[in-house]
Design a protein that fits this description.
about 550 residues
């Protein structure tokens, strides 16, 4: 049987950016695109070019390698042409491959929010789509408040869908903007929309205000839509958007969907979704939800003795899918086998191959669990995991040793009597038999330590010339000023590769230094691997 193609549209960087307490930097957006492409989503909506400097800069370059790079905006304003509408032109002139325009489809909103006639709203919609298609953009229309609009005036809501399709829109997306529609209503309304547009041109965009965004999305898919929209970990305005981290495994693993539909996500990509979900939360500087479906730490955890006994005989007793299928692990006292399988997969990402019965694997697993118990989290710090694994396995080269370091922050007065903050760091390292000392000033102790540490690495200095610290995040693991601190550092090099390292300590400077040290060590591992492949110095 031929399967229908279901397309996955991610709006983490646009609709997710409206989450209270979340502000994405340019570097955040670039990094999150990498996570999304590892999952294998089809569309990445990056924001609204022209709305703010970060989004404008983000769309000044092509940011995706696989997914369709999508810009968001509004249909043209009444009283001016699409060619003279700065918002529309900002999208059409961006480096985006696709353009998603939001259009009012509820007659009440057209009258009260836009204060224009229903006919003018349709004309604006039509002209915007025509202009976008003429500019060579794959065009999507987000039908805002569609379900509320359909219940109030079905003829007008359907007229908006028909207008967009006839003007050349590739997708018309039905939005449950207020998040108050029930799954049964979604299914019934989608069935009526199919009378004027094929499911292969329809999408669903659900909000979670009744806790049913995932259910509404699945109901729409079963009714016939072939594009779903959502966000990583369900972030979004108010109660959030449909959670792609829940939807994707359901669509790929559950026969009700998998037998009829295909996506661009294979088993290998799906097996990374737990790690990606947790890495995203680390990026947001928040704790992952332990009871999140599929990816939560408790998703496959069993505490009750009778359940553990049944699991020992048949894992399917209390597991609806194998935890390893989504990259998670079984948490019961009687078995750590799933943990080993997870570890072998993570090692393979770094070209470390071990047999399942290798005794060193047990040692590494115990070390990882011990370190996670005191605050380390390797889901979001894969480079630190690579360094730790080689250290435990005895294969980490002895590039350099840190003899000592010191960082100081001093309030001084300059010659004009003005106050100035001066931060200085001193680092002593040993490279083979050579003792090297470097001093640097920086914008804060972490920056000063970073500069001092990289200032002179002896024979390895050339290998880290293109190393750059991109981002630095701090999370307090326990309350109070004396709490344990976790630091996540993002680095990149001249090839464009990015990696993450972690440090944990009661002392924020010590935690930061650990993460910086491991970032440099990982870069030297990369350089050594490249040299071994080419036979020449990097």
């Amino acid at each position: 049987m031929t399967k229908d193609r279901l397309y996955i549209f991610d709006t983490t960087l646009r609709d997710g950016a409206q989450t209270a307490g979340i502000e994405f930097s340019l570097e955040d957006k670039i990094s999150i695109v990498t996570l999304l492409e590892q999952i294998g989503v089809d569309y990445i909506e990056g924001g609204y070019p022209g709305a703010n400097p970060i989004d404008t800069e983000f769309f000044s370059q092509q940011r995706t390698s696989r997914a369709t790079f999508t810009a968001f905006g509004m249909t043209k304003r009444v009283g001016r042409s699409a060619a003279n509408d700065p918002g529309v032109q900002g999208i059409l002139n961006s480096r985006a491959d696709a353009a998603c325009f939001v259009a009012k489809t509820w007659d009440h909103q057209v009258a009260t929010a836009l204060e224009i006639s229903l006919e003018d709203n349709l004309a604006n919609l039509q002209e915007t789509v025509l202009a976008s298609v003429a500019a060579g953009k794959e065009t999507l229309i987000d039908c805002e408040h569609f379900f509320d609009g359909f219940k109030a005036n079905p003829d007008y809501a359907l007229a908006c869908v028909k207008t967009a399709i006839e003007a050349g829109a590739r997708w018309v997306v039905l939005c449950d903007t207020n998040g108050g529609t029930m799954p049964s209503e979604v299914a019934a309304i989608v069935g009526q929309v199919l009378a004027v547009a094929p499911g292969s041109k329809l999408g669903i965009h659900a909000h979670d205000d009744t806790g049913q965004a995932v259910a509404n999305t699945l109901a729409a898919v079963q009714a016939g839509v072939r594009q779903i929209q959502g966000t990583l970990n369900g972030i979004g305005e108010r109660c959030g958007n449909a959670n792609l981290v829940t939807l994707i495994p359901t669509l790929v693993l559950k026969p009700a969907f998998a037998d009829k539909l295909e996506t661009g996500i294979d088993a290998a990509r799906l097996a990374r979704i737990t790690q990606i979900s947790r890495a995203f939360d680390d990026r947001l500087n928040r704790a992952p939800a332990r009871q999140a479906p599929y990816v939560g730490a408790s998703a496959f955890a069993t505490k009750a003795g009778i359940h553990a006994s049944a699991l020992a005989k048949d894992f399917s007793s209390y597991e609806h899918v194998p935890p390893e299928s989504v990259g998670n692990e079984r948490a019961i006292m009687v078995s750590q086998q799933a943990g080993k399988s997870n570890l072998l997969t993570a090692l393979a990402r770094h070209d470390i191959v071990l047999a399942k019965d290798d005794p060193r694997l047990e040692s590494l697993l115990a070390t990882v669990k011990e370190r996670e118990a005191i605050g380390y989290s390797y889901d979001g710090a894969d480079a630190s995991f690579a360094v730790l694994a080689r250290r435990v396995l005895g294969t980490l080269p002895d590039f350099f040793q840190v003899e000592s370091y010191r960082a100081s922050v001093e309030l001084r007065h300059n010659a004009r009597g003005e106050e100035a903050i001066v931060t200085e760091a001193v680092v002593k390292i040993r490279v083979e038999d050579e003792l090297l000392m470097s001093v640097a000033e920086g914008n804060g102790p972490v920056n000063a330590l970073d500069l001092a540490l990289r200032k002179d690495l002896g024979k390895y200095s050339r290998d880290i010339e293109d190393l750059e610290l991109v981002d630095f995040k701090v999370r307090i693991l326990d309350g109070g000023t004396g709490a344990v601190t976790r630091v996540l550092v993002e680095s990149r090099d001249g090839t464009g590769e990015r990696w993450y390292t972690i440090g944990v300590s009661p002392n924020i400077i010590d935690a930061s230094f650990e993460a910086l040290y491991e970032s440099i060590t990982y870069k030297l591992l990369k350089a050594a691997a490249a040299q071994a492949t080419t036979g020449t110095p990097v």
